Amino acid sequence: MRTRIIAHVAAILFVLPLHAFAQQGTAEIAGRITDEQGGALPGVTITFTDEETGAFREVLTGADGSFSAPQMRPGRYHMVAKLQSFATFERNGLILQIGQTMIVNGTMRVGALTESVEVTAESPLVDTTSAKVGGNIGTDELSELPTMNRNYFATVALVPGVQFAPSNQMGNDTIIASGQTSQNNLVTIDGGYDSDDALGTSAGAQVRTPLEAIQEFQVVTSMYDAEFGRASGAVVNAITKSGTNQFKGVLFGYSAPNTLTSTDFFAKQSGLPKATTTKREWGGVIGGPIVKNKAHFFFSLERQVDNPNRSKVFPTRPGLNFSIAEDRTDWNTLVRVDHQINSNHTWAVRWLREWAPQWYTIGAAKQTLESYQDETDLDQTAIGTLTSVLSSQRVNTFRVARTWEHWWHGNECFRKQGSSGGREGFAFGQEAQGNQALCPPQLNYQSFFAQASTESQGPWDSNYMVEDDYSWFVPNKHGAHDLKFGFRYNFTELRRVSQINENGTFTFNTDLPFDAANPRTYAERFSIRTGAYNEYIKNHTNEAFAQDTWRVTPRTTLSLGVRYDLEIIPMDETGNPLFKDPKAYPVDRNNISPRVGLTHALDAEGKSLVRAGYGIFYNRSILGAVDDAIEFAKSTTSAVVMFPTNAADPGPSAGRLPTDPFLANGPVVNRTLLNQLYPPGVPLKNDGTVIFDSPNRQQPYAHQFTAGYVRQIASQLALHADYVMMRNRDMFLSRNLNPAVRVDTSRTGALTRVDAFGVLGEAYKQQVYLFENTGWSNYDALNLALEKRYSRNWSARVSYSLSKSRGIAENQADRDTYSFLTDQNYDLWTGPSSVDRTHVLSIGARTEIPKTRGANLSTTIRYMSGAPFTIYNSAVDVNRNGELEDPVPVGTYSGTALNGMQNVKFDGKRNGARGPDYFQADVRAGWHLPLQQRRTLELFLDIYNITNRANFDIPILANRDQRVPSTFLVLTQLYGGGGFPRQAQAGVRFAF
Fold first, then answer.
1. DSSP string, 376-408
2. CATH number of the domain that 193 lies in?
3. pLDDT in tens, 494-544
């Protein structure tokens, strides 16, 4: 395997020139040097020196006096410009931000070199060279704003066009951007890939980077340059801190004891005992010189102990109500070394590791204490970078990186089978030795799960990246050109073992406990996985791009780019009737993405700017969706089968005993009969759901258009306004090739499967889905931002989005369940995206109170209007397609039970109702005490959700069903899992 990877990389290196560029993790300084009469000054030697590390870069101005210093590490720089017969020009305090191009113009006067003219000016607020829509967040905001879960995604969400999706699950906070699900985002750290190829960024970054280890990040929601690809949502581009010429560090500790945490809404309402929640975090960072001005190190260590609240109420079985604290811990370690070998060559390496076991975790749907789960999780990422200055106008960066993880979701019954003891049971990485089939079956009642969890699975996956980046500054060619070229090769290998539902699930039409003498308490259906599933899938991606940032005039910049993405996922299509050759898996070879951006400064100072852009953005294929065609193939040893196969047994709901042999003896798995039908380890035709790959499968893509205006209102205040339009096309939406026709509209009526499209050629017992690109969605938004940079003791950031996202597809594994025979019923399926929130407002502000010698206040405030959901009635099958998901008619609906939503308007289509809105305000009060020798001590108190508002999530799927009045439209879930009741956290931070 390694030989094949090396050969593949070598082939790319041979075919593509070694000219590549990406501003991932870097930034650029550019400008023009003139004399006092405005004449161009060629040959000026300009040196940029990092004021903290001593690292430097030298460039020369061209014939028109212009210069460019690309691929610079973000930081604070000192600029010196020298030319014989002219006084030296100097400028201090140039704050270079990640992903941005800073324009710095200078005027030199005649004089001796020994003379010096030092200019003091603020770094510009407006980037006059880029049409990107997004924003930058620096170290101060990261460390001084109250950040729930201390996850930097909470701060990312202060940028317009971004929703914050918090989670009680450790490190799983994420964001939703541009009306798309979190699958479609891309996260890079130090220029290296930090996203999950199997799941996307649905749980945030692949490896969480601690707040104290992050120097800065940029989030771009629209119109990123051609250097960025494999995403159509947001790009989060972050860099970690490095050491400096002085030993600097931070020691910190945070504590949120149970006494400072409020009882959550459901526990308080139901009179449940308060869960013993705690949260403790401690650690530190340190960096310094190995060799002053040459080599530096940085080290970070963080420990988290988190016991968040989890409360659940079950109106029909109040004896199952509970309020507990989950058990989550984490060790996070980061090491980084930077070395400037000489004026032309710099290398850096960084390794990040996170070990995060989690116990007694409760899912978001109908789980009870009997069905809790657990997770053991190890994530790591490493990157090495070599930057070479080839001339004053050419720079090359070469990167290699790896991101890898293994986790296992299990349960107490499964873990007890291991020989290693403890809660883990098995040695880490050896969990597949267990057998979920030895656990009792899950009992799926109408409104809760009982007896056991079905969860038992885990992946081993690695992503390897090789990248070469090159930039070439060409001045005086009808303006200055920043030419950028690049390629990247990614290889991902994923091994996954799934024993999900090997213990089986009995589904009931009641919440009553099983009584052998009462036919109505018997299960009406049984499902089970017939054997463990073992998968290996790999993915090769080749990326190349070219970009020209052409400064046509000092006020106008035209950005022209193009990129190419080639994704190769080898698949065995054996048994798929749509493929004549089972090895002829689909490869989408025409993914060419043009990017065009235009910016024009309306004044000579660059304080007012109009910008616009258009581009095509191809998304990556999520392996966790594509691999369904492997897991649910035609022939398998691991089918998920159902009994009765045709439909639910009509007996129990009619007061009769079930007749199916798997149901007749109550909720006990008949292993003897199961093994007779499906001998273990023997490949058989799949009697469960089958998923076929499409020969025409392509990568989803989006057309993006943006138009905006930026105005620097004052020296430290800027206003941004942007219109964003996105048209997502070729999205994945699976079609049922084997639809059913029910004999009547009853819930238990018999089904007849039909080869409606005439492509299967044989009978199948369940749905046969085709994984294809028929989906689309449209997104339109007005993004507004007001940004006040820190000065006069305060700073603030206010962001607002007015948006609309609508279509027929969202996640890559979506399936159309409204179809009847060949009619897909897209008129009913078309609706708002599940992440569509019309209004999103976020505020982040901080201030130091004058005359208090260090007292400070800060806050983050968020508001989001309600998310959409569908109201349905599974009591009838209106369109007789067997899916029991038909939406109810247009009308206004109300729940009758406690916490039932009232007067909910529904338009009769998918996602035609709206859930509760969201509001949360967090505050921090602190004291910043300067000590001797640049040391500081910070004491603070954070209060999260200071109003103690119960932010409800939309009703869980079962509670959107009109068939069950006791739970219809009842709110049983708080946003983010536990809802984050008011919590006070005390902290101390010692910086030296």
1. EEEEEEEEEEEEEEEETTEEEEEEEEEEEEEEE
2. 2.170.130.10
3. 999 999 999 999 999 999 999 999 999 999 999 999 999 999 999 999 999
Q: What residues make up the domain containing 90?
A: 2-119
Contact 327, 358 (CB under 8 A): yes
Q: CB neighbours (10 Å) of residue 949?
A: 16
Q: What is the pLDDT of residues 695-712, one digit of tens each?
A: 999 999 999 999 999 999
Whether this model's pTM surpasses 0.85: yes
Same domain, 98 and 156: no
| Rounded Cα gap, residues 535 and 461, in angstroms | 11
- Could you give the number of structural domains in the chain? 3
Kindly state the DSSP code that residue 878 receives in the 8-state scheme.
T
Q: Is the separation of the CB atoms in 234 and 204 below 8 Å?
A: no
CA distance 317 to 296: 61
If asked whether residues 137 and 221 sit together in one domain, one would say: yes
- CATH at 563: 2.40.170.20
397, HSE (Cβ side, Cα atoms, 13 Å):
27
Rounded to whole angstroms, the Cα distance separating 253 from 316 reads: 44
The Cα 992–Cα 987 span in angstroms is 17
Instruction: Copy the structure tokens of residue 171.
Output: 């490190």
Q: Is residue 647 part of a domain?
A: no
Spatial neighbors of 286 by CB under 8 A, at least 6 apart, are 247, 248, 249, 298, 299
Q: Does residue 273 sit in the same domain as residue 186?
A: no
In this structure, are 225 and 267 located in the same domain? no
729 & 753 share domain: yes
Tokens 């992903």 belong to: 99
- Is the distance from CB of 859 to CB of 158 less than 8 angstroms? no
Does 778 lie in the same domain as 829?
Answer: yes
Asked if residue 655 belongs to a domain, the reply is: no
Tell me the C-alpha distance between 53 and 287, whole Å.
11
**How far from 502 is each of 524, 531, 875, 934, CA to CA, in Å?**
19, 7, 29, 61
How long a stretch of residues is the chain?
992
Cβ-contact 50, 3 below 8 angstroms? no
Q: For residue 140, give the nearest of 938, 744, 961, 759 by alpha carbon.
A: 938
